[in-house]
């Protein structure tokens, strides 16, 4: 018997990731913008501020391109580059993360299953359809279409209402401490942090559980001992 009445997941970098050839995508963005390429994708990503802004992905990417251009001494329009990057990207090019399909099956054995993503439906729907997720879950909440996104309470309230479950009996699984773990805590859900590296520390956040792989979720749902907040973190 599961210790939870329902399980819900974040989408990007929790259940799935982009399946693009990043080098090819980067090069095509410069080509589309009519700009001589400079830098590498691995240089751009660390120059981005936090998680993507669902309401201004172009501005988010543009800030990174502006910093990259300054490092390379290039005088370019970073917004034009960001717009070109967005134009050649295909939101349907996604793949499940290892263990995601089994994690969804384990969650379905526990009770209703939900998805809560901070992106708007116009962007995230292509991913949902490509993964066949609509047939695997009972409710999907696109917080990008709401007045407030994670870590605010409203998206989580929408989710538990759609699943007809008590927040305190719901487990939310996500990779972001500041959006997923903080938001679940604020809304009264239990949280499972899917950390990228075993040495990543949760401090100052306190997830109820820490997962190093989605393969660990089935055991967490059915046993009395889990990886509690702070353990191994």
Automatic annotation (TrEMBL):
Cofactors needed by this protein, per the record, are: Mg(2+)
Q: Which InterPro entries match?
A: HAD-like_hydrolase, HAD-like_sf, HAD-SF_hydro_IA, HAD_sf
Q: Name one GO molecular function term.
A: hydrolase activity
SUPFAM superfamilies to which the protein is assigned, alphabetical: HAD-like (SSF56784)
Family matches, as Pfam families: Hydrolase
Keyword list, A-Z:
Hydrolase, Magnesium
Q: What's any GO biological process attached to this entry?
A: small molecule metabolic process
- Gene3D superfamilies recorded for this chain? HAD superfamily/HAD-like, Haloacid dehalogenase hydrolase-like domain
Is Magnesium one of the keywords? yes
Origin, by domain of life?
Archaea
Family the UniProt entry places it in: Belongs to the HAD-like hydrolase superfamily.
Name under which the protein is recorded: Haloacid dehalogenase-like hydrolase
């Amino acid at each position: 018997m599961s210790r939870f009445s329902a399980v819900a997941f974040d989408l990007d970098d929790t259940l799935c990731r982009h399946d693009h050839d990043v080098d090819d995508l980067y090069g095509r963005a410069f080509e589309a913008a009519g700009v001589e390429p400079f830098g590498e994708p691995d240089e751009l990503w660390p120059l981005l501020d936090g998680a993507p802004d669902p309401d201004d992905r172009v501005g988010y990417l543009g800030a990174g391109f502006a910093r990259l251009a300054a490092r390379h001494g290039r005088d370019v329009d970073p917004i034009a580059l960001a717009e070109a990057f967005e134009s050649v990207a295909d939101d349907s090019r996604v793949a499940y993360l290892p263990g995601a399909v089994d994690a969804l099956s384990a969650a379905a054995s526990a009770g209703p299953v939900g998805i809560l993503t901070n992106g708007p439906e116009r962007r995230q729907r292509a991913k949902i359809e490509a993964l066949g997720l609509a047939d695997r879950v009972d409710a999907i909440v696109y917080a990008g279409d709401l007045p407030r996104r994670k870590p605010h309470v409203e998206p989580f309230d929408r989710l538990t209402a759609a699943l007809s479950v008590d927040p305190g009996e719901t487990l939310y699984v996500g990779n972001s401490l500041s959006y997923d773990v903080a938001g679940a805590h604020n809304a009264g859900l239990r949280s499972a942090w899917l950390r990228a590296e075993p040495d990543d520390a949760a401090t100052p956040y306190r997830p109820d559980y820490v997962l190093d792989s989605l393969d660990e979720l089935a055991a967490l749902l059915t046993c009395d001992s889990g990886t509690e907040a702070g353990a191994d973190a």
